[in-house]
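[agent] plan:
  1. take the single chain provided in the ticket
  2. run structure prediction with default settings
  3. attach structure tokens to the ticket
  4. add a short note for the reviewer (M.T.)
[agent] executing step 1
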Amino acid sequence: MPNPTLAKFKKNNKYSKNIKNILIVSNHIPNEVMEAKSLLEAEDFKLHILGESGKSELISPELLSNYDAIISIGKTVQMSILSGIPIYCYDHFGGPGWLRPHNIAQASRFNFSGRGFDEKKTSHTIYSEIKSYNSNIDIACENTFRNTGKYIIGVWIYILSKYLEKSHSKKKIQCPNLNSAL
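[agent] step 2 finished; step 3 output follows
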């Protein structure tokens, strides 16, 4: 089961054409991200930190909607996907960077922890990848990421309740297809 989040994060936000206002969510920001942050800020990007190195605040759809992109791992990734906000999946374990159709399955398999990608990036690579963000790629990826209930906890509760209902009645149990539950 993925690490789902609340349906309230599913919004119809439009992808930003330009990324200038970025939120970093982490309690363990690696040095390469902090160095990339400095490089980006020197070029008028605004980066804010939530976590031990910055401000502590509960993540909400309203908070995320204030940003053009998010740098994080874990549940914040699912929140960003559902919110339609570009997500750069990277932290102390490394990560793929911008989520795309070619890397989302592997990133998801490791609960968006950053694991599963064999190398850590340099600060200059992170800086270059963030600076060269292409909104057209995210618009093309929108159906891949958002038109599924895979990351919504209510869908998983429904599936589990049906599973338990069948199990309790001692019928042969078949786990329903996720898309048919939507």
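[agent] step 4 note for reviewer: Residues 153-168 form the longest helix (16 residues).
[agent] ticket updated
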